[in-house]
Amino acid sequence: MADAYDAGSAARHGPEEEPQDAPAVIVPVVVSSPTPATPATPPASPSPEPRTGVAALSLRYQIGAALALAVVAIAVCVHIGMVFLHVAPPNTVTKQHGKAIDDWIYPEFEQNWKLFAPNPLQQNIAVQVRAQVGTADGGTRTTGWYDLSAQDGRAIDGNLLPSHTQQNELRRAWDFFVATHDAQNRPVGLRGALSETYLRRIVQLRLDRANAAGDGGVVERVQVRSRTTNVRPPKWSDEQVSDKPTYRVLPWWWVPEEGAGSADGNDAVGGTAAADEAEGGAR
Amino acid sequence: MNRFALAISSGIARVTESALGPYQTAVIRIGFTATWLLFLLREFPHRQELYGPDGPWDLDLAQQLIGTNGSFTALMWSGSRFWFESVYALAVLTSVLLLLGWRTRTMSVLFMVGVLSLQNRSIFMGDGGDNVLHLMCLYLVFTRCGQVWSLDERRARLAREAHARGERIGPDRVGPALWSVLGFVLVAVTAAGRLDGDLTVPVILWGIWLGQAVWWIVGRRARTAQPRILLDVVGNIVHNGALLVIMAEACLIYATAGWYKIQGSRWQDGTAVYYPLHLDYFSPWPALADVLSSSGTMVMLITYGTVVVQVAFPFTLFNRRVKNVLLAAMITEHAVIAIVLGLPFFSLAMIAADAVFLPTSFLRRLGEWAARARGRLSRLVRRDDDPAARPEPRTPENPEHAHVGSQA
C-alpha cells in the first residue's frame, strides 16, 4: 500500500509531460485493447474532464502506473497466499516457512474459521465458582457453588441480542485457561499466567454482583471448577453417552487485596516469563 | 499466444481505468459499519466490562499480552476513563460517518482505528463476527467504497452540477482541515513512541496520510493532467487489489469452514447441526431448537447442505447463476443462525461479507427501492407539517436513476 503511494509520489517528481510523445507511447501498453467501449485514443479530448486510465498517460507515467500495478499485484498475491497458508492445515510449506507466515499474519490478520468444525462441541461446559469469605465477626465461611455459565445461559434465553459479556466472556476465558494449562492445572507460559488472573477477575466480578461476601464480608479466596455434561444424543439416535457430569476442580486462589491486583499479576508472570519465549510464535 | 496477450492487456485496462464494483464496495461499507455500530450501541451498557480500563481483562493484562504481539490499540495510550469513553465515542461516530460515506477514505481509516482499538484491547471478548470485522476494516481502507450511496458522491455530484451551471465553487476547506488535525495527532503519537509495535497499522496510517497530501497537491498544483490521472490509476489499482483480497478472504472463510467440517465425524453422520442447538451458550430459543431438530432427516439435510454450500461456494464464482443461488442460500442460513444460535452480529458481519458477491443489477434495484422508500417517507413527513410538499426528493443513493423518486 505504502509502496503504491510511493509510486504515486515518485511521479510527482517526474518530469513534465511531453504531449507530443503521448500518441506514440500509448500503443505499447494498451496493445490493441479489445474493449471497444474503452475510448482508447485521442488525448486531445475536447471535454474539460480529461479521460482516465493508463491510455491517457505518457510513457513516463505509464511506467509509474505499471510499477504500481506490479507492486499491488505482488502484495495481493502474497497476502492471499499467506492467509491461505495460515488457515490451511499444517503442511509441508507451513512447516518450512512457518516463521515467515506468522510474521506476516500476526497480529492483525490472525483468523480462525473452524466454525463448529471439525466437530461441533458436544458438551456443555459450565464454569462454577465458590468463595471463602472472611465475615465481619472475624470468622470464615465457604459459599456454595455459583453456576456462572447457567447464569449466562439464562441471560441468553429468549434474547435476540445476546451480549458478548454473556456469550463470550466467561466461555472464552475458560477456553483460554484450558488451552494454557496442563492437566495438573499448571500454567504454561505468560499466557497461562494471564489466563489465571483473567479468570480470577471475572469470577470476582460475578461474585461481587451476586453479593457473595454478604454484608461486611470480604472474599478471601476463590475456587473455580468446570462441570462438563454431554449433550444428550438426539432422540432418533441409538447412541449412548454418559449423562454423569465430569468436574475439573482448580486449586483455591487467594484474592489480592484492593489495589494490590497488578502486583499479584506481575508476580505470577515473573516465574514464567522464560517459558513464554519459547511459546512466542506458537500461539 | 496473441489471445493471451490480448486478455492480459484488456485485464490491465480493466483494473487501471476504474474502481470496480462500486455498488458492491458501497454495500459492504454500509454492511460492516452498520454491524459495528449496532454492536457498539448494543454493548454500550457493557462497554466498561468489555473494553474498559477496569474490566476483568484490565489494562495490566492487556499491556502484557500486547507486549508480546505488538498489536495496535489506541486504548493503551492512556488508562483513564475519559480516554476510554472518548475512543468508544469516536468508534461510534466514525461508524456513522463511514456508513454515510462522509470523507470516506479518512473515515475508513478512523473506523479501522476504532475497530482495532477496541478489539485488540480485549481479544478474548470477540468471536467469529469480530474477527470478520477486524480483517475487513483493514481491507476497507484501501477501497474506494464511497463511489455510490455516499455523501461524498452527493457532494461531488452537486459540485459537478454547479460547475455545469457555470457557478464558481470555493475550495474544499474541510478536507485539508481534517487532514491537518489528524496529521498533527499522527505525528504526536508517533513521536511519543505509541506506534512502536507491529508495523502494519502505522504503515497504513502514514501511507494514507501522505497519499492524501500527494493527492491534494497534485489536484491543485499539477500543471498537466498526467499526474492526476496517474494517481487516479494508482487509486483504482489499489482499490481493485483490495476488492480481490476481500473476495478471496470471504472465499477462504467458507472454504476453511467447509473443508474442516468434512473431516468431522458429526458432519459425516449428519447430526452436527443438532449439537450447537443444544449448547447452553448458543440456544436462546430451546423450544425452537427442539422443533428444528425433531426430525433426523431434516437435521441431516441441513448438516450436509451446510457443508456442500460452504465447500462449493468459491467454485461457483465461475458461474453467475449458480453463485447467486448459493449466495441466497448462505445469506438465508446466516439470517437463521442470527436468531436460532443467538449470533446476530456474527451473522450480520457474514451477510455483509457475502454482499460483496451480489450482482450489480440487484444492488441497483435495492438502491432504487431504498431511494423510493425514503422519498415516500420524507413526503409523508412533509405532508404532515407542510401541505405544499417538496415535489421530488433527492436520491443520492442512485445518481443514474434519480428519476425513480418521481415515479413512485
What does this structure look like?
- With 283 residues, chain A is an alpha+beta fold.
- Chain A folds into two domains: 2-105, no CATH class; 123-282, no CATH class.
- Chain A contains ten helices and six strands, in the order H-H-H-H-E-E-E-H-H-H-H-E-E-E-H-H.
- Chain A has helices at 2-13, 22-29, 59-87, 92-105, 148-156, 164-167, 169-179, 189-209, 261-270, 273-279, and strands at 123-134, 140-142, 146-147, 218-230, 246-249, 253-254.
- In chain A, strands 1, 2, 3, 4, 5 and 6 form a six-stranded antiparallel sheet that branches.
- In chain A, helix 3 (59-87) packs across helix 4 (92-105) and helix 7 runs antiparallel to helix 8 (189-209).
- Chain A is elongated and about 90 Å long.
- The two termini of chain A are 27 Å apart.
- Residues 1-50 and 260-283 of chain A have low confidence and may be disordered.
- Chain B has 408 residues and is mainly α.
- Chain B folds into three domains: 19-153 and 171-221, no CATH class; 256-357, no CATH class; 361-407.
- Chain B is built from 18 helices and no strands.
- In chain B, 47% of the residues are buried.
- At the A-B interface, helix 1, helix 3, helix 5, helix 6 and helix 7 of A face helix 1, helix 4, helix 7, helix 10 and helix 11 of B.
Q: Which labels suit this protein?
A:
heterodimer; A: 283 residues; alpha+beta; 6-stranded antiparallel beta sheet; 10 helices; 44% helix; disordered C terminus; B: 408 residues; mainly alpha
Number of helical elements of chain A: 10
Radius of gyration from the alpha-carbon trace of chain A, in angstroms: 31 Å
* Structural classification of chain A: alpha+beta
Biggest beta sheet summary of chain B: none
Helix content of chain A: 40-55%
Please, what is the average pLDDT of chain A? 80
Proportion of strand residues of chain B: under 5%
Tertiary shape of chain A: elongated
Provide the gyration radius of chain B in Å.
24 Å
What's the average pLDDT of chain B?
Answer: 92
Q: State the domain count of chain A.
A: 2
Instruction: Please provide the ordered H/E string of secondary-structure elements of chain A.
Output: HHHHEEEHHHHEEEHH
List segments of chain A where confidence is low: pLDDT < 50 over at least 5 consecutive residues. 1-50, 260-283
- End-to-end separation of chain A: 27 Å
How many separate domains of chain B? 3
Count of DSSP helices of chain B? 18
**Structure class of chain B:** mainly alpha
Helix percent of chain B reads: over 70%
Number of DSSP E strands of chain B: 0
